[in-house]
Amino acid sequence: MIGLSTAAEVRAAEDVLLARTREGVLMQRAATGLATVCLRLLGRAHGTRVTALAGAGNNGGDALFAGAHLAARGARVTAVLLDPDRAHPAGLAALRRAGGRVTGPEGPDGLDRADLVLDGVVGTGGRGGLRPPAARLAGRAAAGPGMTVAVDVPSGVDADTGAVAGEAFAALHTVTFGAVKPGLVVGDGRGCAGTVHLVDIGLGPHLAAPRAHQLTDADVAAHLQPPEPGDDKYSRGVVGVVAGSAVYPGAAVLCTGAALRTRPGLVRYAGTAGDGVRAAWPEAIVTDGRPADAGRVQAWVAGPGMGTDDDARGALAEVLATDLPVVVDADALTMAAREPDLVRGRGAPTVLTPHDREFERFGVPVGTDRIGAARRLAADLGAVVLLKGDATVVAGPGGTAFVNATGTSELATAGTGDVLAGILGALLATGTPPAQTAAAAAHLHGRTGQLAAARGPLVASDLVRHLPRAVGLVRGSATGSLRDSGA
Ligand SMILES: NC(=O)C1=CN([C@@H]2O[C@H](COP(=O)(O)OP(=O)(O)OC[C@H]3O[C@@H](n4cnc5c(N)ncnc54)[C@H](OP(=O)(O)O)[C@@H]3O)[C@@H](O)[C@H]2O)[C@@H](O)CC1
Ligand SMILES: [K+]
């Protein structure tokens, strides 16, 4: 698992370490790591042109010291000081010693010919969008030929939330220090950060336990264990699906198929789209009656295409009255937003899977702090909230959160949510902790989308077809990483 640490958590760890190390050591570690990543990205330093935008804080200091490293290896480095009188003195001296040029915000900055642009305007100490001179330079860097690399955080991005209030630096890569900040992987910040590279500056032992994480393939593999010799169709987690309608059987077919393809134990279907499900998935056990007629299950998925009429409301209330985990998706979210007490009083896990418009029906729009919004709704309802987006966020009622790293915009097409609900039901039926399980489902859904999209534009049923390969891939990469680590 990759921990996501807020700016305050990183600063607190830095303070402990700063008190124990010689002055400047941490910044040297950061700048050396930054220069090393830049060298790797450039392929060589000699003869390359580098422009380093440097603000008045320590973020600017990092950029100046890294510029000095690159200049010492033969790069032609120009530092553009946003506030020349307050530039980091030691960083500036190092750059000058290494032969770097220095100019002000209106000077000849070399942005039009740069191979690399370093954004050291502002890091974790930033507030709000970029101010005018920095915003103008960031715009020119984005339009210019140089590879854009943000130092610690793209300037103008809120390190904790990913919110961008105005202009921000658009980076192809971000080299971040000590810990990945949530704002680099969620919301608008994710788009500004590009590929994130983490540089270890020794903060690890001093960092508070993170309250937000990203899962890796190895973490998700633990949710996708192959059957063991003693397993049978009941012991592997039986899923119940309440979805679709006579008019809209597609959602039921996709959701049931996704559950079967994720964990082919047993899937029971209860609803009015039974004929469509029987035709598409003869493996499923179908009843045209109520959920209670379906037989024993270990988790329910309710919502996709089921409608919101009295019968649908009755079926939803029936599954929510059980002591089993329930996924509340699509039409079930509309009904739960009207009657949140259906969810609030539950003892067993509930996972709600809203996109932004569905989320808003619970009373408050998502806003720019997606992790915060998901946490608040989760605490209010005593449920897990999986907030869909480019980077899907999962929050548990106690505040634990996950940000998905595998999302692809190709998944923004009809029916992909029905597939996610089916995957989620299949994983929840095994009884693993619901917030991490929901994050694992989002991860697998994203990996499946990546696989399916490799062949061109995808439709939701492509995802169902690619699920077994995605499960194999996730399991395989976990084995690979264990082998790599010598375990
Ligand atoms: N601590 C350590 O040991 C280590 C810290 N490290 C590094 O330090 C960074 C944090 O440094 P920091 O705390 O000095 O703040 P920082 O991000 O440079 O910003 C302050 C400057 O930004 C300005 N500014 C603010 N908002 C702005 C805006 N919207 N648009 C434009 N400007 C804006 C603000 O201006 P002012 O408000 O003062 O006028 C002030 O000049 C951290 O991200 C990491 O890179 C690493 O070297 C590892 C060791
Ligand atoms: K920056």
UniProtKB/TrEMBL annotation:
Keywords: ATP-binding, Isomerase, Kinase, Lyase, Metal-binding, Multifunctional enzyme, NAD, NADP, Nucleotide-binding, Potassium, Transferase
Documented EC number(s): 4.2.1.136, 5.1.99.6
Cofactor binding, per record: Binds 1 potassium ion per subunit.
Claim: Transferase is one of the keywords in the record: yes
Residue span, YjeF C-terminal domain: 216-474
PANTHER family, A to Z: ATP-DEPENDENT (S)-NAD(P)H-HYDRATE DEHYDRATASE, ATP-DEPENDENT (S)-NAD(P)H-HYDRATE DEHYDRATASE FAMILY MEMBER
Assembly information from the UniProt record: Homotetramer.
Name the record gives this protein: Bifunctional NAD(P)H-hydrate repair enzyme
Species for this entry: Geodermatophilus dictyosporus
GN (gene name): nnrE
